[in-house]
Amino acid sequence: MDSKFELPVLGNTSASDAERARALSADLTIRAANGKQYWRSLDELADSPEFDSFVRREYPSQTEVLIDPFSRRSFLKLMGASLGVAGLAACTVQPKEEVIPYVRQPEEVVPGKALYFATAMPRSGGAMGLLVRSNEGRPTKVEGNPDHPASLGATDSFAQGEILRMYDPDRSQSMMHMGDISSWGEFVNAMTGRLSMHQAKKGEGLRFLTESVTSPSMSALMQSIASDMPNAKWHQYEPARGSGSFYGVGASTSPMYRFDKADRILSLDSDFMMGAGTSVRHARDWAEKRKVSASSTGMSRMYMVETSFSTTGANADNRLAVKPSDFEGIVGALASAMSVGGGSGNAGNNQAFVNAVAKDLLSAKGRSIVIAGDWQSPYVHAMAAKMNDALGNVGQTIFYSTAAETSPMDHVASITDLALDMAKGEVESLIILGGVNPVYSAPADLQFAEATKKVPFIVHHGLYRDETAQHAHWHINEAHFLESWGDARAHDGTASIIQPLISPLYGGKTASEVLTTFTKNPSLSAYEIVKNYWTGGSKSATVETTWRQALNDGVIQNTATTAGAAPAPAANPQMNNLAAGGYEIVFRPDPTIYDGRYANLGWLQELPKPISTLTWDNAAYMSRKTAEALELNETLRFKGGEYVSDVVHIEVGDLSVNAPVWIIPGQPDNTITLHLGYGRKAAGRVGNDLGFDAGRIRTTKNYWFATGAKVTKKGDTYELAGTQVHFSMEGRDSVRAATFDEYKKDLDFVHHPIEHSMLPNDTTTYEDKIEDPTKDMSLFP
Fold first, then answer.
1. What pTM did the predictor assign?
2. Which is it for strands 620-622 and 614-615: parallel, antiparallel or unpaired?
3. What is the rounded distance in angstroms from the CA atom of residue 661 to the CA atom of residue 635?
């Protein structure tokens, strides 16, 4: 990074966390031969007796937990979910599988030698290409497909967790009708009568509910049904999917960002390195541009303006934390500083930051990116699109193509329309496909569970008998994508064939197979549906060769959509106009269990969350200044290897929830972040009753942000598990830092060993010991 560029000092309260962190680093950091030393937590800095004892003995001091038969959750937190579930599984009934030996061993199968198959993982924003390892006919490991544009050979934690989800013994193992085990034939017979009724009314009263659909063959089935029954309605809902992006660039168009071509990046509350189907590609492209060699003249620079501390924000060169109610004003001021039409806003004390960022972006025209987060308003997305246009980025670092999703729509508006029609008795048949779980995840004000009582026929199709399945008349167990045929498009339109590595463990069905019961061919298999779509039923040698090549490569050649010009932004985009006052709430998908769909995977529950390193729970993230204002003076006391946290009562209108507190340096003051996905009641033996359900105070009007919240100390405490202090670094530096010029002089400096002086009795790994670092707590965010 250019060492001559300096961002102005930020003096407002929103930037106080950053300033206090800088002051803390300047005043309290110990200098060693290689420069600054860093602490992994405030507890390590404070060096309390409890912390010191834990670091010395860590797990041996917790052995009493292991012999407590009632402390299963603590055991899992301490020793590992996978180990815990493996041991506890000995007391449960395992799925019965018939093992048939090879009469004639296939020539491609060599005992002990793995085979790799190309497939794809369907997900919001576009599919991720995978190579899955198979050992003796069983999938064992997921890797990225280097030929797929969304993965480039890499994956993320969600893709890795899918292997565990496929083998999860808590998956639904049979079809159910009114709580009793049923069969596919009985379901088809039941659907025959419903179909006749709806055909007579051209689909009146028939509703379909899915997540975002990127499958071309499934989309063709939906279009066929719509042609036969035009009065039927298709709804889409994903609790972690935003709606703002569809306003800024048009409903059928999607922007593609090339971070490997951008010298300057401005992220407007976009955590583009986490979660969506493009996150792996974006993270790899960004990292590629950050590589430094002896001939490098500079590095890319990233600015982040965000309402909650994110993984992308942690990687930013300059970061500004702001309250949700101030966000649109900052964006408007940025657009105005770049002379973008329609941009106006009050940046307040952040005007120096705004001017510096605008100046730097204008110096990199055609080599920059402005990206807005999915949860931001149509106004923010429109301003981002206009700034990119003014900077000349379109066609250079940003390209537009047809959206990967079929019929993209505003998910909040769609689930709202469905719930209202259900409540009015206008829905006679509701078909829920792909594990959508609105009883748990729909906005609280829609009262979706209550609305299901007004629907006489509900079909739920999913991997689990979750909260929604328990309100359905029929439940169809779903085939996991690693054991079924399908197809899916990536963010740039590239299509992939999803091919199974194993037969369905429990005879599950795909969403497309369920849809065939509404067509003239209800007996088509998933394989026939997909192959017929891509081959047109042709059996010619050329078509067959193309089909086999697609299976081998994991991508169908020449299916990416052609990049076009940026569409006109929506006219007069509406601002959220969040009213300031009280505490402000930010809702976010959980970084390890997403929207709750991975809640039953112990491996992901145990995976430390970025920023907080919290495991097995969610919490109310807030700054230390906010905690002090709420008189939470004892919040996050380190005790016995865990954190004992104060519990707060959060009210938004007539809705409320209780949550433990976790202090996050860098969190905007008076702003509380709540993560979705916890508080499940029908997730499975691992995921049930963990954490709290933030969705209880999430409504259609307060979907991503809420202002005017009341927060009070409840008086209770709650134990939280975090891995931030687990396992000492054995004298090694957790972070080594250098300027760009210093790095160019010695590209290998991070590998040089550093020796640290040790105090008598090994009381610390640093040269000097800070005397009472907690004396002036105002230094802490």
1. 0.82
2. unpaired
3. 7
Angle of CA points 272, 273, 276, to nearest 5°: 65
Burial of 56 (0-12, 13-18, 19+ CB in 10 A): exposed
Give the separation between CA 528 and CA 515, rounded to whole angstroms.
Answer: 13
Residues 6+ apart with CB under 8 A from 452: 422, 430, 439, 458, 471, 472
Q: Tokens 């089935």 appear where?
A: 221
Q: What's the order of all strands across the beta sheet hosting 128-135?
A: 115-121, 128-135, 138-144
User: Which of these, 185, 189, 194, lies nearest to 225 by C-alpha position?
Assistant: 194
What does the pLDDT average to over 459-476?
Answer: 95
Q: Residue 662: enclosing H or E segment and its boundaries?
A: strand 655-663
Q: What is d(CA 90, CA 104) in angstroms, rounded to the nearest whole number?
A: 34
Distance CA 695, CA 444 (A): 7
- Find the helix packing angle between 378-390 and 324-337, rounded to 10°: 20
Angle at 497 between CA 493 and CA 500, to 5 degrees: 145
d(CA 601, CA 630): 35
Which pair of structure tokens corresponds to residue 748? 């290998």
Structure tokens given for 760: 């008598």
- In three-state secondary structure terms, 119 is strand
**Per DSSP, what are the bridge partners of residue 131?**
118, 143
- Token digits of residue 81: 């979910």
- Residue 531 CB contacts under 8 Å (≥ 6 apart), including other chains: 485, 547
Mean pLDDT for the stretch of residues 220-245: 87
* Cα–Cα distance for residue pair 616/624, rounded to 1 Å: 22
Residue type, position 354, single letter: V
Using DSSP bridges, classify how beta strands 614-615 and 705-722 pair: parallel, antiparallel or unpaired. Answer: antiparallel
* Contacts for 778 with CB less than 8 Å, ≥ 6 apart: 20
Asked if 278 and 254 touch (Cβ cutoff 8 Å), the reply is: no
Helices (H) and strands (E) in the chain, counts: 24, 28
**pLDDT score of 642:** 65
Residue-wise pLDDT for 331-364, tens only, equals 999 998 998 877 677 888 889 999 999 999 999 9
* HSE of 482, CA atoms in CB hemisphere, 13 A: 27
In one letter, which amino acid is 725? V
The contacts of residue 106 (CB under 8 Å, 6+ apart) are none
Q: Is residue 510 within 8 Å of residue 479, measured between CB atoms?
A: yes
| Cβ 744 vs Cβ 292: under 8 Å | yes
92-111: b (≥16 Cβ within 10 Å) or e? eeeeeeeeeeeeeeeeeeee
- Compute the chain's Rg from CA coordinates: 27
> In this structure, how many other beta carbons lie within 10 angstroms of the beta carbon of residue 678?
25
Contact 172, 478 (CB under 8 A): yes
Written in H, E and C, the secondary structure of 360-393 is: HHHCCCCCEEEEECCCCCHHHHHHHHHHHHHCCC
Say which DSSP state 603 is in: H
| Residue 544: alpha-carbon gap to chain centroid | 38
Taking the C-alpha atoms of residue 71 and residue 63, their distance in angstroms, rounded to an integer, is 12
The distance from CA 618 to its chain's CA centroid, rounded to whole angstroms, is 14
Instruction: Kindly state the tokens that stand for 11.
Output: 């003096």
Highest mean pLDDT among 418-422, 503-507, 645-649, 662-666: 418-422
The alpha helices in 36-177, defined as continuous H runs, are 42-46, 49-57, 63-66, 72-79, 81-88, 157-166
Confidence of residue 654 (pLDDT cuts 50, 70, 90): very high
Q: β-strand 35-36 against 31-32: which pairing, if any?
A: antiparallel
Q: Checking DSSP bridges between strand 614-615 and strand 583-588, what pairing results, if any?
A: unpaired
Question: What secondary structure, in 3-state letters, does 273-335 show?
Answer: CCCCCCHHHHHHHHHHHCCCCCCCCCCCEEEEEECCCCHHHHCCCEEEECCHHHHHHHHHHHH
Mean pLDDT value of segment 324-330: 91
